[in-house]
Amino acid sequence: MITLASRCRRNIAIIVLAAILGGLVYTIYSLSLRHTSFISGWTLFLIMLALALYNARKKLPFMPWANSSTWLQFHIYAGFFTFVLFLFHVKFRVPNGTLEATLAFLYLGVFGSGIVGLLISRSIPRRLTTRGEEIIFERIPVFQRRLREALEQLVSRALKETRSLPIAELYAKRLLPFFAGPRHFWWHLVQSNRPRYALLNELEAFNRYMTPEEQEIAAQIAALITTKDDLDYHYVHQAVLKYWLFIHIPLTYSLLLFSLLHGVMVYAFIGRI
Amino acid sequence: MKQQLQEFDFDKSPYERPGQKWVCGWAAKGQPCRISPDPKGRCRATYECTPIQRGDRWYCARPSSSGGNCEAGPLPDGTCCNPIPRCQPVRSIRVKRGIVTRVVFAFTFGMILLLLGGTNLEDWRHAFILPGLLTAQHAVLDCASCHIAAEEGKEPTRWLYDAVMMSGAGIDSQQCLKCHSTLGEHAMKVHGRPLEEMTQITERIKQKQTKRKTPLLLSLVALGPGVPQNENGELICATCHHEHKGQDADLAEMDDRRCQTCHTNKFASFVNGHPEFSNYPYQRRTRIIFNHNSHTGYFGQKDREFACLDCHTPAADGQQILSSSFEETCASCHAEQIEAGQKDVEFLTLPVLHIEELNARELPIGQWPADADSDEEYEGALTPFMVLLMSGDPEYPNFAEDLEICSDLGLFDELGLFDLSDADDEELMAVERIAWGVKRLLHDLATRGHEALRERLEKGVGPPLDRREWVALTGQLSVDSVRAAQQKWMPKLMDEVVNRAGGRKGVVSDDEDDLFEAEDDDTKELVSAGGWYRQDLDSLSLRYRPTGHADAFLQGWLNLTGRFYGTDYAAEIFTNLSDSQAPGLCTKCHSIDALVTEVVAAEGNQSRRINWFAARPAPNVHKFTYFVHAPHLVKGCQTCHSTKTDFNNREFKTVFEKTDPTVFVSNFELIAKETCAECHTAKKAKSNCLNCHNYHIGEFAMARYESH
Asked: pTM of the prediction?
């Protein structure tokens, strides 16, 4: 079985080779006084179309069109290749026409979101293994509810058995909002534990005023806080993994549409002899 | 101690289906039912389980993953005791993503349709499709100025049709030529020259070609698709000129390697591979006959410095080095020479005639001055000017052949018609008709003055004369002088010509007393500043004395007769006036070029051009190579223009006696490529093709936008 490093090296070599060959063809066309924009434009459009087909491929899993992993590899490396083509197509200039600038903006949006998607799909799974347990995204609301219910039971017990006011007060002010749903989205995204420790510190601050029974309950609440925080961490990262496609895919179709319009305008207005 | 949330045992972990379109409405609250909505998003929830009947008892069938058997168990009628509250199912993430995608797509499509098809949105549409700002020189143009597809009535739907069908809605390069029409009929051909001319140049270069190493990339280009040309060898303007790249874009920007795609000689750079100069920059002789070598000596004799910039100054555009005017340069030594050595131009002369013989043969010509009547003291022949003017006589067809007959008799010799005793009747009749032609000419000039001159010249040479030319040709001839001559030489000329024209005899009086006899004449001495005068001694003639350098009369006649050098009469005047010792001494310094012009080429004749001026800026002449002197002057003129050490002054003079300007001997050594290559390298003063070479070749004015 081919290793990840070997696969990367192989694919990068293919891309570099393709870029060199493409560059040579491009240069020959350019030196032959041909409009290189046609060759770079058509190649770019056809590759973008092929990349967009990946989404269709995922919807048709029964079709014998190579496995999804192969498609993904093609998607990633061909995507990088389009950036080279794009730079040649715009001739390393910032487009100054409205349609062209819109196209460039859309392309950069798609390419940029693709890069972001690649980076997060490479880094987030590793991150997820460092915190908490393996969690299925769709079940997170269930686990949140369970934690919330567990918290409510502990607080009720504290009130019944020890009449603990600090715990009740902390529950009302801080724990109830924290357990109501996913929290601290941006803090988790930047890998910060600051909100978690802030909450645990608040709980710990009450320790010296608590009876041993209350302290035992508080310890259990602290465990729940840690579990909930880990759950939020999983939620945030898995949500990012799922929601980045909300940018990448819609922009792709807009890009293809504008590319078609661009092609029509080019062929309608190109000077012929 | 942390709590374990996720369990993956088969009986504790329900199977998740994230690909389903709908999700239970309670899922967000952490209480999804295990049934989940149907594919159309309808809640199917009823009870937590469907109890199983074994015998007459009902048992709970709730799966372990949902909590296992309930304590209460089914109701007696077999109904589950835990009904599930119905929910409003929500769409899955995947479906939401699909909806967002479709909305964005529809929005994009709608925006495009609105922009392309919306009425009253033309300005928006044009602003939207404009692929970039035009260069400043084209900024005043609208889309339709260059693109046929943008013409009014060509709706956006037509663009789609044109794009799909490749129907060539725009032969857009023709639009360019609406403004750039001056590029000529071959504008779209290579270098704007006819195919045949370029083929000849290519063949010539191939013959000269030496073996050189072609750069690898340029060799590979030969394997490519080639330059896009149509079957007539034409290229579209946009092949090289790329618009819509901003106001400051350079439309003439061109990679050196792209230039070489078409060229036979392919090389790496100016320094490395560019052909050596063969005869640069001297491709023709100087227009003014000026020997730099001999003048070095003359200046030395007078102890004067012979400095280049004393006579030459850079042109305003810095491109050319101009020669200063005669007055600023040559006049100090040569003006006096020209004025002192002036000779007169004999414009109109009464030829000597054997009147007695004419009268004896009953061919009277009326009054003819006694001095012009076979008097040995008197000389006179028909001048070439008179012949040219007589060719504009309305009766010229009747006596055109007579000129040849009389020429044989000696009409153009000073005493040619002195004795006509041996002439036969036919020859004498020819003399008679010529004599009347002379009389009509004098009559015409005396009665109609300059207008008569213009009419006769126009009839004689062909095309109409413009005013400036006509004025020069008259030399401001005084009509009073003509009338005075007529009064003195032939007082009854008016009546005679009128009678002759009326078909009558023409002779009014034979009274000898009326005939003019010459007296002492000092008029010649009185016109020292130049101009017209009448001479009554030695010959009866109207003469013109040149006024000095750049005499307009001489220039006018040399220009006119040079232009029509192919005709006999014009050639004779030109030859007389262009002799190096002729009046005015014009051609002592001003060289004569033979050239084929369009006017005379049809007749297969050459014309002659006197080069009145040294080379001047010709902004409309675009040659393959150009040079801008101004930035190079810091190196000193003689860096490039060094005089020859072994120069043959006689040979230099001899070549100017001929009329081919391309055969010459230069005072200066040729310029070697190495001289330029000292500075013109890629890292120093640049060495791009377009630094020295033009693409569009020919004589044309640059296009200018005509404002409204």
From this structure: 0.73
